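Quick one, probably user error.
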């Protein structure tokens, strides 16, 4: 008897499974296919990205080798290709090298534009973006307006930014350049107290402090004495020795 019930239960289970499959089977197949496609597509995308990074690394190394061998034109072409078609870190590094070439050719305007481009480039580490801002500001130290430089690097002076000392040095120099000696003295004095300055930066700070000197002390105002106060009456200029009381022990 139990075998009959078991067979009936199995038949019912089979019928339910078949009914569910007939109803939802196509959806299950489509879902499984979609998962397989997405998985394969993601793996393919990862491989393409890895291949691109390897290709960009090879291009960048070839450009550096060209620079070192003196083939400047070939290096410029390779760096320009990376900047046009590359992405991420290698694109930024190529930009730094391209800007350095512009500086070497005394084309500061192009160098500044290149640094500015790096500073807003997507997919680049923020530290590299901030370094590009510092590099552009250094090229503008002699000619850039104080307001422009403050807008460029003022936000980099916070304690958490790795380029804060470089930014502060630039702004201190620009204050000195524009004749705001008090502000320059304050900033250089503050920098001198920083324990983690590099030896080179500390030397520059101390040299500038020697040039501009210490900040002058504020004059202290002494309140005028009240002539009406007791004991402050002026001496009578007409008083003679005869008017003075006798000194004990004399006639």
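Nope, works fine. Designed sequence:
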């Amino acid at each position: 008897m139990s075998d009959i019930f078991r067979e009936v239960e199995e038949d019912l289970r089979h019928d339910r499974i078949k009914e569910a499959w007939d109803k939802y089977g196509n959806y299950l197949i489509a879902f499984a296919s979609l998962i397989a496609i997405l998985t394969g597509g993601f793996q393919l995308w990862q491989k393409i990205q890895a291949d691109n990074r390897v290709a960009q690394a090879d291009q960048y190394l070839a450009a550096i080798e060209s620079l070192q061998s003196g083939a400047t034109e070939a290096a410029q072409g390779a760096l320009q290709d990376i900047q046009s078609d590359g992405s991420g870190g290698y694109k930024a590094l190529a930009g730094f090298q391209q800007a350095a070439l512009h500086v070497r050719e005394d084309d500061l305007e192009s160098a500044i534009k290149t640094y500015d481009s790096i500073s807003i480039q997507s997919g680049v580490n923020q530290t590299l973006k901030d370094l590009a801002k510092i590099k552009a500001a250094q090229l503008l130290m002699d000619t850039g307006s104080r307001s422009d430089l403050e807008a460029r690097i003022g936000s980099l002076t916070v304690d958490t930014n790795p380029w804060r000392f470089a930014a502060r040095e630039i702004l201190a120099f620009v204050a000195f350049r524009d004749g705001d000696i008090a502000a320059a003295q304050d900033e250089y004095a503050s920098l001198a107290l920083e324990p983690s300055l590099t030896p080179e930066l500390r030397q520059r700070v101390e040299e500038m402090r020697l040039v501009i000197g210490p900040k002058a002390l504020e004059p202290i105002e002494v309140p005028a004495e009240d002539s009406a106060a007791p004991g402050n009456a002026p001496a009578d200029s007409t008083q003679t020795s005869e008017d003075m009381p006798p000194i004990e022990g004399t006639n």
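Residues 117 and 250 are 97 Å apart (CA to CA).
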